[in-house]
Amino acid sequence: MVSEQVVLKMENITKDYYGNRVLENVSFELKKGEILGLIGENGAGKSTLMNILFGMSVISETGGYQGKVIIDGKEVNFKNAFDALDAGIGMVHQEFSLIPGFTTIENIMLNRESLKYNFLVEVFGSRLKTLDRADMQERAEKAISALGVKIDPNMLIAEMPVGHKQFTEIARELDRKNMKILVLDEPTAVLAESEADILIQSLRRLADLGIAIIFISHRLKEIIDVCDKILVLRDGKTVKESPAKETSIRQIAQWMVGRNIEEKKDEVKNERKLGDTVLKVENLWVDMPGETVRDVSFEVREGEIFGIGGLAGQGKLGIPNGIMGLYEAGGRIEVFGKSLEMNVPVKALKAGMAFVAEDRRGVGLLLEEPIDWNISFTVMQAQNKYLKSFIGGLVKWRDDKKISELAKEYIKILDIKCVDEKQPVQELSGGNQQKICLAKAFAVNPKILFVSEPTRGIDIGAKKLVLDTLKQYNQKYGTTIIMTSSELEELRSICDNIAIVDEGKVSGILPATAATEDFGLLMAGKVDESKEKVSG
Amino acid sequence: MNRLRQFINKAGWPRVIIGFFLLSLFVAAPFAQVSLAASIKDTLVRFGMNGVLVLSMVPMVQSGCGLNFGLPLGVIAGLLGAVTTMEMGITGIMGFITAVILSCAIAAVLGWGYGKMLNRVKGEEMVISTYVGLSSVMFMCMMWLVLPFKSPAMVWGYGGSGLRTTITLEGYWFNIIDNFLAIKIGDFTFPTGLFIFFAVMAFLVWAFFHTKTGTAMTAVGSNPDFARASGIDVNRMRTISVVISTVFGAVGILVYQQSYGFIQLYTSPLFMAFPAVAAILLGGASVHKATITNVIVGTILFQGILTMTPSVINSFLKTDLSEVIRIIVSNGMIVYALTRKTTKVKS
Questions:
Q1: H-helix segments, A279-364
Q2: Reduced to 3 states, what is the DSSP secondary structure of residue A48?
Q3: Which range of residues forms the domain containing residue A376?
Q4: Residue A259 — pLDDT band, cuts 50, 70, 90?
Q5: Phi, psi angles (nearest 5°) of residue B177
Q6: Contact between B226 and A398 using a beta-carbon 8 Å cutoff
Q7: Residues A70 and A102 in one domain
Q8: Using CA atoms in the order A168, A169, A175, A177, what is the torsion angle rounded to 10 degrees?
Q9: Does residue A362 fall inside a structural domain?
Q10: What is the pLDDT of residue A450?
Q11: B223 contacts in A (CB within 8 Å)?
Q12: pLDDT value of residue A400
């Protein structure tokens, strides 16, 4: 039921964040009753595009955008989200914005309640009108039934299953009278498969009512099933705009992740000799908020650089954090053939493992302390080095001189830009802070080194240096490195094998040389199609 | 000019202002017929009396437990040690040493429990510690009456049971440290013993923070997640810091008493925490970072003002303003420091 009437047109949208281009000349059209699937990796520019459409303040605060947003033939420039709401754009966010203690009706009607007159209005004004509950119920039921689902309108949000919450959010947007465009950001991420199916069906139904929908999901199957048209973004650019019928999951996956595949083949890699298994993980679960790991098993061989990839929130970060004992975890971990006691960070350190955390400022550094402290602390505490013993080891005195020397050495090796080794690390740039995190881990002389998101938030030059350093360290000392990163290309550039994590499970392990679309498929949760590749 | 600005930046405005205020009080002292020598001597003695109590703040601040508003707990340990020693009838330097040993033992036990409790209320330490101080003092108010002390020097004259509110140390260890190696120049006396004692205690704290455990403790205070990732038992470090703080509180009150001449029981421990907290903050410590320098500078400034205002200002204004100034400075300093912490978190 797609009509020819164009409701939304975004033309040549370009956006910079502090000189960093996140969107470049993105254009698309959306017709009445059409469903557009918006696809891209984390950081591809999906959210920024939607923030522009929705007039979020973060856009205007960072210098606005270039290009045109045209709704119903008129160019608009929303000052804030309320303008966007008035223009008939609704958005359902990934995180629920519902009030748990209110019922479904109250949540749907919030701030748009049906009101009744009473005598107090004469005295105190219209703010004292009472609620017309009967009418509200009617309106809420109408909105819910438009979705084609059954939800008890008087149920408290807090007592609802997740799926119903998601529907309540959508119903709330539907209740707006002039709703024309509905944006759904990963609406199925929290849903079970059956619930997701119902949601997909109701999206179709809404489209038939003439509402245009922008649907963001990383589950490519859903996109293919429900969308009329897809728009694939990569690094802020439109990679492909195509009718959904003319494409396949495999093709979309390739568009989503693929850079030039051929030039990345590195002949050195094939000659790499790997030793015996040094780390064996079986049925690992980790309770890390936002990065839950459900059931992960894998093996890493000596001298290997093992990559863990996957989209944000799927659990890849939970794996190193769980193994190092920083978050509650269970399952079985074997290091050099010996079983590792879990949830005790010091045991993991003593077993010869070190960790460069993804949360640099939160876990990785003592921001207020000098560089030399940061570098030497872990090795000092875990291995009793850089200490002087007095009275038969009763007093372990910090050897400040040796600590300084150690820091100076790493400042030189890693080219850390600083005044001297006594400078507090909070004064350094992100890239240099990351180098200190690496130095801290190197100082422990680890046999197995975990590195999480080592290039997040640092500039390109520092990125390359960090990756090269890891590579060199691996070659020089034969250290096994397990690197977690959201950037697949980064993993492919240095890893031997890469495991892709999806919904808390390993959806497949592939050699880094495997085809890009295979990785894309694994990320999109399409395990079946790629299973034969996993074994190969 | 640049140098001056650098100095002010480094020292911080509060210290510069209070320092100048204190200096002006000393300058004004002769005009108010206040003896300069006596004023300086008083300031020095009060520094020595309070120094160790202020020092006891450092371990807990460094480990991230915040300012020790629960100092009364340590004070109680000190009081228990002192009255027990007097009950045993040990006098002189031996008496003081016995009191220190007993107090430390009691303080270690109390501090351990206090530390365990603070580990359960992370983020709210300063509120809870205030209540720990209050409730322990109130509990002891009952215990001072009930505990079976018999020494006639200490119990109430009429009933023959229960300890007095104020017990004199005359004949036990009054001024035993003050007078140790004291230097007399005219009507000015330098309390050498007090300063040696403070120096030893300060050295112990300084040395502790140069050991492996002390380093770990600082890291725990600086970033507990970092410390945990480096294999540190965060709760254990925090408990140790609370034990040390409590022990120093106990020793601190013993020094205070021997100089003051009296053991003050019942509600008096309540009034020890705020001046100590204010002094270390005045010295430039924040809620999560404190150094020995902060302790020394803060105690001199704070005690200096307390000594000088009653004599100098009162003689000018002819009213008793000292108490008002004391409260404004101590409470104002605490409020200032607490607000500074929140802005730091935001930036």
A1: 318-323, 345-350
A2: helix
A3: 369-444
A4: low
A5: -85, -40
A6: no
A7: no
A8: -170
A9: no
A10: 92
A11: 362-363, 365-367
A12: 87
A230 and A116 within one domain: no
Residue A345 included in any domain: yes
Q: What Cα–Cα distance (Å) separates residue A349 from each residue in A35, A48, A297, A325, A440?
A: 51, 40, 21, 10, 12
Domain end call among A428, A444, A460: A444
Q: Which of B210, B222, B223 sits opposite A397 (nearest CB)?
A: B210
Instruction: Tell me whether residues A396 and B226 touch, CB distance under 8 A.
Output: no
Could you write out the three-class secondary structure of A220-261?
HHHHHHHCCEEEEEECCEEEEEEEHHHCCHHHHHHHHHCCCC
Residue A377 Cα, gap to closest chain B Cα (Å): 8
Query: Could A396 and B230 be called an inter-chain contact, meaning their C-beta atoms sit closer than 8 Å?
Result: no
CB contact under 8 A, A373 and B289: no
With CA atoms as reference, the chain A residue closest to B224 would be A363
pLDDT at A86 over 80: yes
For residue A198, the tally of other CB atoms under 10 A from its CB is 16
Could you report the per-residue pLDDT of B264-293, keeping only the tens digit for each? 989 899 988 888 998 998 888 888 889 999
Report the DSSP pairing between strands A505-511 and A338-339: unpaired
Domain for residue A357, yes or no?
no
Are A382 and B210 a contacting pair at CB < 8 A?
no
CB distance B228–A345 less than 8 Å?
yes
- How far apart CA A529 and CA B97 sit, in angstroms, is 80
Residues A304 and A438 in one domain: no
Out of A362, A396, A400, whose CB is closest to B225?
Answer: A362
| Under 8 Å between Cβ of A329 and A342 | yes
Nearest to B231 among A349, A363, A387 (CB): A349
Euclidean distance between the first and final Cα of chain B, in Å? 29
Partner-chain contact B230 A377, CB within 8 Å: yes
Given this model, what pLDDT does residue A48 score?
Answer: 83
Mind telling me how many Å the CA of A465 is from chain B's nearest CA? 24
The segment with the largest mean pLDDT, out of A39-48, A183-192, A262-271, B142-151, is B142-151
Q: For B225, name the nearest residue in chain A, comparing CA atoms only.
A: A363
Chain A residues near residue B231 by CB distance under 8 angstroms: 345-346, 348-350, 378, 381-382
pLDDT in tens, A325-357: 889 999 999 998 889 888 888 888 888 899 998
Q: How confident is the model at residue B156 (pLDDT cuts 50, 70, 90)?
A: confident
Residue of A424, A449, A427 lying closest to A439 (CA atoms): A449
Higher pLDDT, A103 or B11: A103
Query: H or E element: which one contains A13?
Result: strand A6-17
Shared domain check, A186 and A172: no
Rounded average pLDDT over A215-235:
85
Q: Is residue A525 part of a domain?
A: yes
CB contacts of A349 in chain B (<8 Å) are 230-231
**Residue of chain B whose alpha carbon sits nearest to that of A441:** B230
Phi, psi of B19 (to 5 degrees): -60, -45
Complex ipTM more than 0.90, yes or no: no
> Are A172 and A130 within one domain?
yes
Task: Provide, as residue numbers in chain A, all residues whose Cβ is less than 8 Å from the Cβ of B61.
Answer: none
The pLDDT tens digits for A1-18 are 567 788 888 888 888 876
What's phi and psi for B89, nearest 5 deg?
A: 75, 25
pLDDT at position A162: 75
- Token pair, residue A144, equals 């819910």
Return the residue of B nearest to A379 by Cα.
Answer: B230
Residues on chain B touching A324 (C-beta within 8 angstroms): 229
- Alpha-carbon distances of A284 from A327, A346, A359, B332, rounded to whole Å: 12, 19, 21, 53
Q: Do the Cβ atoms of B61 and B67 come closer than 8 Å?
A: yes
Distance of CA A332 to the CA centre of its chain: 27
Is the CB of B229 less than 8 angstroms away from the CB of A377? no
What pLDDT does A459 receive?
65
